[in-house]
Amino acid sequence: MTDATATTPRRTHIAVRVLEIAAALFFALSAVPKLMGQDEVRETFDKIGFGDGFMYLIGGLELAGAVALLIPALAGLAASAFLALMAGATITHIVVLDGEGVLVPVIAAVPVACIAWARRERTAELLRRVAGRAA
């Protein structure tokens, strides 16, 4: 796998790593109330129309993604997945929840977009390896 630090300035690498850790912490903390089935979160998912199963699924995805953000080879892929998740959350907040709380997924998308962009070469290499096209 290409060493991303060889072509990335050290300060940039450190800044992206800090973003990865901060985003992992954010998403792990976001997962906890969902996985614990807290009443307020349960009510929100009921209002959306997906119920408890979807709440636990999203909580599990957030926790798995938080862990993946801490693994250098997976961080870019996890950030890309979080971008998709935040896009869905943004649309849901606008369409179903009348815009209530929409800033949370919009703001959360910014650091994961930066991570996805900064780690795009690693992600491409990972996908090539998974597809069996690596040299």
Secondary structure: helix percent: over 70%
Question: Structural class given helices, strands, pairing?
Answer: mainly alpha
CA-atom Rg in angstroms:
16 Å
The stretches of 5 or more residues where confidence is low (pLDDT under 50) are: none
Note the beta-strand portion. under 5%
Report the end-to-end length measured between terminal Cα atoms. 10 Å
Order of helices and strands: HHHHHHH
Instruction: Using the alpha-carbon principal axes, give the shape.
Output: elongated
Give the tally of β-strands: 0
Main sheet specs: none
Mean pLDDT: 92
Q: What is the helix tally?
A: 7
Describe this structure in words.
Helix 2 runs antiparallel to helix 4. The chain has seven helices and no strands. The protein is elongated, with a radius of gyration of 16 Å. The chain starts with a helix and ends with a helix. It is an all-alpha fold and 135 residues long.
